[in-house]
Automatic annotation (TrEMBL), chain A:
The chain crosses the membrane at residues 21-43, 63-80. The lineage of its organism: Bacteria, Pseudomonadati, Pseudomonadota, Alphaproteobacteria, Parvularculales. Keywords: Membrane, Transmembrane, Transmembrane helix. This is Uncharacterized protein. The keyword Transmembrane applies.
UniProtKB/TrEMBL annotation, chain B:
It is found in: Cell membrane; Membrane. It comes from the Bacteria. Residues 121-396 form the NADH:quinone oxidoreductase/Mrp antiporter transmembrane domain. The chain crosses the membrane at residues 6-25, 32-49, 77-97, 109-127, 133-151, 158-177, 197-219, 231-249, 255-273, 285-304, 310-330, 351-371, 386-413, 434-455, 475-493, 563-586. This is Na(+)/H(+) antiporter subunit D. NCBIfam families: PRK12668.1. Its main location: membrane.
Length: 122, 587
């Protein structure tokens, strides 16, 4: 994945997905694949192999889907986060301190069995 | 026909009886009974035969007081739903083989049975009965999550579910009183005389369970409070039974298109800001139901096929995602994004299976979501519904955001929070137990099977279809949309525009009845008590005064109880005589 590495973990604790090489690969792979399929769509449109239902503003335009994907995603993330200003409350807003407790189920029967399987609660 | 069973045994009854039997067995016995019951139910259903649309196979028809009961109606629409309910029940049994409590295992199978019974019900009252059993059996699964929060959420869930049942019953009663057929067929919401209130009532009852906007909050409230195993059980049945009921009763009802479109959009924003990943999945479920509701509103054979196909694949990949999160919950004690990350290093199988679920729900080609969702968007385009089509495309990018990227990214990648160096050498969480991995593997296999070979799904659909998902155009357009959306994600993270996860709870419309509604109710209770106390106090005062007045008059020496002299008596008699004379004179 393309995130920055977590600074605190030791180098040997990193997996292949956290190496700079993998992140470089993703920066190449994702837009590359997108462009490949956009190109494919343009070729299909030139060959009249597409079946648009709406006009040039929409699916007649071969790169319409790429634009929709990019713009919709950005819109959701950039605009959606402002919803927090209205609806976000502390974790214990409804349920009090119970809302912040870890939720490991401690049904007696299951606990007995996990002990017998050698899987005690860590 | 299964030889040792009565000829017309309802598969739902097989599962329900098994669910009750499970109470008497230990975990392994429960698992074995569950697998056998699901297999028997499935064989029984297919041995009865499936009719095409409009020519259903019906069994067990009885008439009581002029009302015709049809407990079993098998046509393509009911059987595709009952089939996926059986598959979901099997996955649940395997997933909960080690971890399900007695209540969860038992009620899970009863709940699955009720959904199957509801889908196969041919008349309205049978539907109602299974509708209610589904509500009551599932609330135990929520309560089994443990803790006071789960109990309260279960109570809220129960109130809303039972309300849906009562509205349905009222609708059925009114429908029958005006001479409607007892068979569960299509209703006409808008006739020549305007909106039919009876049909509207029934639609409202279905809409509660199908999570229409504003009626949806029971889902996000309750499902994340169940246990890891319980949430998987819950994710499959209630809402999809409602989708089946809508497809049967309200196909082609125009109002469902804007309702469905709204359902696909608003959860996207709530899922973005939500910290609890199982709650993200609950919002995602709501968004997926929107696609189905929208398709039912479009109502063409392609759209209804799309809705049924989407329900089918959705149950598998949504269960898969909930199973992945259930495994994370089991191993780490939380599903909050703020506390997770880097789990791919110690839970590789869970990671891989969850990614299969995420790619399926995002509708990547070769995964199951692609072959179903493309039918719905195509149906909207074919009907030239530009706005609905645009909304569905927008929502597709939203699905990718919350289920395709957010779930696997924050749980298994992102910031490694379980590195031994960060936790004083504590070991990383272990991989999920074998039974969970088998169940996840089974669901992942189904996602890939349908994705690679769609005819296995298309053969089950209500209407004959020659739809081909894998045209170059479909693949190119969908991949374009997805890859550019992922590119947007990478840019947003790179430039730190992606919102960080925050420990929080986000309000939804249920705030109105959980906070001000509760206060108003408590105020009404207090006011009633106060009014009653005031009335009681006033009554007591008046009674006291009357009694003391009577006492004053009648007590020894009181006005009426004391002795009078002869003179007073003569005077009184004279006064009475004077009045009598006066009256006689005047009249």
């Amino acid at each position: 994945m393309s995130d920055e590495q977590h600074p605190d973990i030791l180098p040997e604790e990193r997996s292949i997905f956290e190496t700079p090489g993998w992140i470089r690969f993703m920066w190449f792979f994702v837009p590359g694949t997108g462009l490949f399929f956009a190109l494919m769509n343009i070729v299909l449109a030139v060959l009249h192999k597409t079946h648009p239902h709406f006009g040039w503003l929409f699916d007649k335009n071969p790169v319409f889907y790429g634009i929709v994907g990019f713009v919709s995603f950005s819109f959701i993330v950039l605009v959606g986060q402002h919803l927090r200003k209205i609806v976000m409350r502390p974790e214990d807003y409804y349920d009090g301190p119970e809302a912040t407790m870890p939720r490991i189920n401690t049904d007696d029967e299951v606990r007995m069995r996990s002990i017998s399987l050698g899987e005690t609660d860590e | 026909m299964i030889p040792f069973l009565p000829a017309e045994t309802n598969p739902a009854i097989i599962l329900m009886v098994a669910g009750v039997l499970m109470v008497f067995f230990g975990p392994r016995g429960r698992g074995i009974i569950g697998v056998i019951a699901v297999a028997l139910g499935f064989l029984q259903m297919y041995s009865l035969g499936v009719g095409p649309m409009g020519d259903a196979q019906m069994y067990g028809i009885t008439e009581v007081a002029g009302y015709e009961f049809i407990p079993l109606r098998l046509d393509k629409l009911s059987v595709v739903f009952a089939t996926i309910f059986h598959i979901a029940a099997l996955v649940n049994v395997i997933y909960g083989w080690q971890g399900a409590t007695k209540v969860e295992a038992s009620m899970g199978i009863v709940y699955a049975g009720s959904a199957i019974g509801g889908a196969l019900a041919g008349d309205l009252l049978t539907l109602f009965v299974f509708w209610e059993i589904a509500a009551i059996s599932s609330v135990f699964i929520i309560w089994a999550g443990g803790g006071h929060a789960a109990f309260k959420a279960g109570m809220r869930y129960l109130v809303i579910q039972v309300m849906s049942g009562l509205l349905l019953l009222a609708g059925i009663a009114l429908h029958l009183v005006r001479g409607g057929s007892s068979e569960f067929g299509a209703f006409k919401l808008v006739g020549e005389a305007g909106v039919d209130p009876v049909a509207a009532l029934i639609l409202f009852a279905f809409g509660i369970k199908a999570c229409f906007p504003i009626l949806h909050t029971w889902l996000q409230d309750s499902y994340p409070k169940a246990s890891g195993v319980g949430a998987v059980m819950l994710s499959a049945f209630t809402t999809k039974l409602a989708i089946y009921a809508l497809a049967r009763g309200f196909a082609g009802t125009d109002i469902l298109i804007p309702i469905g479109a709204t359902m696909t959009v608003f959860p996207v924003f709530f899922a973005l800001i939500e910290n609890d990943l199982r709650k993200v999945l609950a919002y995602s479920l709501n968004n997926q139901l929107g696609f189905m509701v929208c398709a039912i509103g479009i109502g063409t054979p392609l759209a209804i096929n799309g809705a049924a196909a989407h329900a089918f694949v959705h149950i598998t990949y949504k269960a898969l995602l909930f199973m992945g999160m259930g495994a994370v919950l089991l191993r780490t004690g939380t599903t909050k994004a703020t506390d997770l990350g880097g789990l791919h290093k110690s839970m590789p199988w869970t990671t891989a299976f969850t990614i299969v679920g995420a790619m399926s729900i995002s509708a990547f080609p070769l995964f199951s979501g692609f072959v179903a969702k493309s039918m719905i968007t195509l149906a909207a385009a074919e009907e030239h519904m530009l706005l609905a089509w645009l909304v569905l495309l927008f929502a597709s990018a939203g699905v990718l955001e919350h289920s395709g990227i957010k779930i696997p990214y924050f749980a298994f990648f992102a910031h490694d929070r379980f590195a031994p160096s960060l936790r004083n050498g504590a070991p990383r969480p272990k991989e999920a137990p074998l039974s969970m991995l088998i169940a996840m593997g089974l669901a992942a296999f189904l996602c890939l099977l349908v994705g690679f070979y769609p005819p296995v799904l298309y053969g089950l659909l209500p209407y004959e279809t020659d739809y081909h998902a894998y045209t170059l155009e479909h693949v190119a357009t969908q991949m374009q949309l997805l890859m550019f959306a992922i590119f947007a994600f990478m840019l947003l993270v790179r430039f730190k525009l992606y919102p960080p996860e925050v420990r929080s709870v986000n309000l939804d419309v249920d705030w109105f009845w959980r906070v001000p509604g509760r206060k108003a109710l408590m105020a009404a209770v207090q006011m009633t008590a106060d009014v009653w106390h005031a009335i009681w106090a006033a009554l007591r005062d008046i009674t006291g005064q009357v009694l003391s007045g009577i006492g004053a008059v009648h007590r020894p020496g009181g006005l009426l109880a004391r002795y009078w002299t002869v003179g007073y008596t003569a005077l009184t008699t004279a006064a009475v005589l004077a009045v009598a004379l006066l009256l006689a004179f005047l009249s």
